[in-house]
Every structure is written in C-alpha cells, then in structure tokens.
C-alpha cells in the first residue's frame, strides 16, 4: 500500500505561522466574534478549536452564546461595531443554513470575479471551508502550477458528494471556475459544473446529468466527501486506482480500506478551515481600515 495520508495540521502550519508573524509585526488586534446558537457537538468543537488557534496566532476571539431567536439582532449589532472585524456563525441554525457571506461576495464567487477593485488590489472573500479545500488541493499538487492562474484544474475530474449552500455548491463553482470538470452530488441529483471544452467559457455553467454515482466516481481523479451521517461510506471498490480522496465531513465517509486504492488521503480539513477563517478576517480588517 503506498497511500500518503496528509493531515490538515501539516497543510495549515505555514498559513498559521504567516498569520502569527503578520499580526505580531504589524502590532494589530483583529477581532473575531463567533456566535453559537446551538448545542451541536461538531459546532461546539469547531468553536473551541477556533478559540485555541486564534489565541496562538494573536487574533482576539470572543464566543457569544445566544438563543436562535436572538441571533439575527445580535449579528446586526456586531456588524455595526467598528471594533469587530469578522463574524462567524456556527451552523446549524434553525435546522438549515443561512448564507455565510454578503451578497456581493457570493455574486462575485459564482461569476468568477476575483477582485473587488479594478486595480486588482483587493481580493474577494471566499467562504472558509471551500477556500480551505482549494488550499488542500494546491498543497497536494492537484492544481497544476505550470498552467496559468485561473486554469490550473484544466483536465481534472472532481466529484464532490455534498451540495450544501455553505460548502459543496460554492466549492463546485470555485473548482469549475479554475478549470476542473466537477460532478456535484447531493441526495437527489448529480450536476456537472464546467467551463466547456478547452475552457471556452469565462465562468462555469451548470447542467443536470442522468449519470449515476457508480459512473462518475470511477472516472474521477479526486473525490471529496461531506455527508453529515456516520453510516455513509463511499465504497472503495468504486474508486479508481491512484485517486485522491478528501473528507470534510465530521464523520469518516470513506471505508477503512480506502488507502488500498488512493494515492493521497486527506481525512479532515478543519485546521485549514480555521486558518482560512483567520486569513479572511485579516483581509476584512484591512478593508475596514481602508474605508
Ligand atoms: P448539510 O446537511 O447542509 O449538507 C449535506 C449535503 O450532503 C447535502 O447536499 C445533501 O444532499 C448531501 N447528502 C446527504 N446524504 C447524502 C447521500 N447519501 N448521498 C449523497 N449526498 C448526500 O451539511 P454541511 O453544512 O454541508 O456539512 C456537511 C459536513 O461537513 C458536516 O459533517 C459538517 O460538520 C462538516 N463541515 C466541516 C467543515 C470543516 O471545515 N471541516 C466545515 C463545514 C462543515
């Protein structure tokens, strides 16, 4: 068996070091407020690890626990507070998700608009879990640096099993905008996100397919899972030899023998997500001070 397991700690360490050095050398105190309006064990764990990483890197983190009914007012209040540079809402809320980003960033992400300004000095904010998975794919070499920026996934076939508004759908759009052919799987359907043959489209388009999981997984170079149930296991037998597999669900979505087929296995991405959350926070800090 020659599978390499890559841990999120390893992927995130250079980002954490850079964040720590930047915050220290600039003598700034970016502040993040996290809202926890549920008892979900994954959310509580996520909030705890955010707090720990923030402390290590020099970000001021405050966790505010509230009722679901109070959440909206509290978010509005925090948004108006000049001393708060970023807000994090730990899902789930109301059993479903509210969107994590303001309209402009969501629009830009889906339309492949990468900067806020014409001079291209201000990068758009991308939600932290999809961004973390992009960084994982860069780290393990799925992005081909020989190709021009924006096309580095050309030729890659990627399956994502999850199409939530917060992770799976934005991730499919980002990877397709970067040139990949992406199969986006949810409990009801499979869609294809792509920029056409030869990347003739400037931004991705989406089409429904009648293909089955059994047909797309064997032709995928990368399979990314995010099914939030402990019983879900993607059969190893479906995977092609040498596939790259990444799991972002709180539960292991691959079978124990996945290493027999995979060339690279990333079992979790949580630490990279938190590093991206802090990176987004620093961007928001700078944009706020430039206003
Ligand atoms: P969600 O419930 O909003 O979405 C789940 C998605 O999985 C949906 O698209 C659903 O259709 C699909 N799905 C469910 N069962 C399926 C099946 N049998 N076959 C195919 N698709 C199926 O959940 P979410 O917020 O996207 O979170 C998913 C998981 O990812 C959770 O375990 C969550 O804790 C984890 N998560 C991790 C991070 C991180 O940084 N590590 C961040 C966010 C979420």
Automatic annotation (TrEMBL):
Residues 8-97 form the Tetrahydrofolate dehydrogenase/cyclohydrolase catalytic domain. GO terms for biological process: one-carbon metabolic process; purine nucleobase biosynthetic process. One of its GO terms (molecular function) is methylenetetrahydrofolate dehydrogenase (NADP+) activity. GO terms for cellular component: cytosol. InterPro entries: Aminoacid_DH-like_N_sf (IPR046346), m-THF_DH_NAD-bd (IPR035812), NAD(P)-bd_dom_sf (IPR036291), THF_DH/CycHdrlase (IPR000672), THF_DH/CycHdrlase_cat_dom (IPR020630). It comes from the Eukaryota. This is 5598_t:CDS:1. It comes from Funneliformis geosporum. The lineage of its organism: Eukaryota, Fungi, Fungi incertae sedis, Mucoromycota, Glomeromycotina.
